[in-house]
Amino acid sequence: MLRRVVIVGITPYLQGRVGGVASHMKNLERLTGPIAGVEQKFVYTEINSEWVAKAPFVFHRPLGMANAVARLAALPSAPGTVVHLNTSLHARPIGAYLALMEVCRLRGWPVVLQVHGGRYRDLPTSGPARAMWRRAFEGAGRMGIFPGPMWEELSELGYEDKMCRLYSLLPKTESPVAAEEGPARFFYLGRLVESKGVLDLLEAFGQLHSEFPDITLMMCGSGELEGSIQEMLAEAPWGDAVSLPGFVPAEELGGLMEQGNVFVLPSRFPEGFPLAYLECGERGMCPLVTENSAIPIVFDEGVEFLALQPTVSDLLTQMRIVIEDPALRGKIGRAARKAIHANCVIDEAGKLYKSAFEEALAQTA
Predict the structure, then answer these.
(1) CB-based contacts of 280: which residues, under 8 Å, 6+ apart?
(2) Cβ contact 73:85 at 8 Å
(3) DSSP secondary structure letter of residue 199
(4) Can you tell me the distance from the alpha carbon of 274 to that of 168, in angstroms, rounded to the nearest whole number?
(5) Pairing state of beta strands 111-118 and 163-164?
(6) Residue 241: exposed, middle, or buried by beta-carbon count in 10 A (0-12, 13-18, 19+)?
(7) In the 8-state DSSP scheme, what is residue 127?
(8) What number of other Cβ atoms are within 10 A of residue 355's Cβ?
């Protein structure tokens, strides 16, 4: 019987911590309701203390990982324990995570290994990283994997029987935006880099603004293009219709999301399972999302999102559609919110996590 879940991953409480895994870790603290009666313990792989902050940065991760291994080893024995490891499929963290898994093996605790990003094919072909990751996959009781390319390649490696779909967790908001109200208010959330398609988005928006002067665009994030975009907007006749709040702390992001009713993600590179889509879609925005992602695998194109090709011409086409058809904006926004609630909102998605924990535990019985 499942009695305790030990959750291991990066701490979301370091100053300036951003990113999908950090948000996910914070939301895991709210699983108490969906898995009622199960004790939760958290072991963080970084140390939030002044003495670590004063050490050279190169020592931060090793110190944190060593501390996590020691803390996991020091936990008292308890029947019905499952350990939930959260990481990304990159070369750097795997050695430390194998040490954590070895502690679990010695304690008799099954592991649910949730992989939040990265690709096996991108690991170095020379060196031990691929072999070490294979060892981690083989030692896991269950593997929480996003749909899409990662799922496909790990299936080809022979791990499909261990795999289950565990999505990033989101809290439920009570007051969604009404996407059909007012003019189209486009909202982008992500890094301001060329591979994200932000320059294409600006070009398309500028062309459309001359025809639809009431539309607006907010681009939340920072990156190497931030300065050049600011210069572009200072010269563009439509520049006042675009706002660049820069990096926005998670606790302030919700207020800005309320100002958008169409989420746009025009990335040129494969996106995997983008958290920004989930966050904005859960708010009721109508999503326009790159088709080069796992979104079409989970959600219905034309019903729960509109697919984008990474070109200015397709951005113009799809953005024009939602500008001219407010009713469609509202319909897709409501459908996206409903679908995301079924897969990712804590109260519902928590049931998927509980099932994965129980299945891993059953294998050791």
Answers:
(1) 187, 189, 257, 260, 263, 287
(2) no
(3) H
(4) 9
(5) unpaired
(6) buried
(7) S
(8) 15
- Average pLDDT over every residue of 281-307: 92
Give the pLDDT of residue 346.
Answer: 86
Cβ–Cβ < 8 Å for 17, 10: yes
- Torsion angle defined by CA atoms of residues 351, 357, 358 and 360, in that order, rounded to the nearest 10 degrees: 140
Q: What is the pLDDT of residues 11-44, one digit of tens each?
A: 776 655 556 677 788 888 888 777 778 899 999 8
- Selection from 260, 269, 180, 275 nearest residue 219 by Cα: 260
The answer to whether 295 touches 305, Cβ cutoff 8 Å, is yes
Mean pLDDT of 210-237: 96
Which pLDDT value is given to residue 192?
A: 95
| Mean pLDDT computed over every residue of the chain | 90
Strand residues in 122-253 grouped as ranges (E): 142-145, 163-164, 185-189, 216-220, 242-246
